[in-house]
């Protein structure tokens, strides 16, 4: 399959399984998304650095503008995880490099929804979207080396640990090492048969 042009419109909705779909994040999601972030603040703070800057609905709007702009210019495609009709988290392709045909997957999930395979199934859907619809060659997940849950997801979907990147991310008051997992399009296709 050939690489899709930068202006190829990404899917706005991806059905994952009954009761779970991915829907492109939009400005209309501001109130619901902020409420979910706010009630999961302590849970998310362990591994995500954006919480201190996300203190109101107004403070989440620049992120949602960035989501819409990234989708339009092909540099990102971020989705709300819609679980039984409500936003339960977010997932997306980030840092899409058109020239190098690669991207990173980022995600987070409400604490109450953990342990149901939601993120694993959503990551599988994003891999399919990235490789089939966007024509990517390499997709990466970077997880803090101590984040066993995120690392397990990367391993569960067949990604390979390439490296541990030392002190790669500042998290509030300390640096975190990041484990870099990758999957190539050819590897993904072989796993689909």
- The structure class reads alpha+beta
Distance between the termini: 16 Å
- Rounded to an integer in angstroms, the radius of gyration calculated over CA atoms is 16 Å
Largest sheet: 8 strands, mixed
Helix content: 25-40%
What oligomerization state is this entry in? single chain
Count of alpha and pi helical runs: 6
Look up the CATH topology of the domain at 13-139. Answer: Aminopeptidase
* Poorly predicted parts: 1-9
Topology pattern, helix = H, strand = E: EEHHHEEEHEHEEH
**Full CATH superfamily name of the domain at 13-139:** Gcn5-related N-acetyltransferase (GNAT)
Task: Give the class-level CATH name of the domain at 13-139.
Answer: Alpha Beta
What percent of residues are in strands? 25-35%
CATH structural architecture of the domain at 13-139: 3-Layer(aba) Sandwich
How is the topology of this model organized?
Elements: E1 13-17, E2 20-24, H1 30-39, H2 41-45, H3 57-73, E3 77-83, E4 86-97, E5 102-109, H4 118-133, E6 138-144, H5 148-156, E7 160-171, E8 174-184, H6 185-192
Parallel strand pairs: 5-6
Antiparallel strand pairs: 1-2, 2-3, 3-4, 4-5, 6-8, 7-8
Helix pairs in contact: 1-3
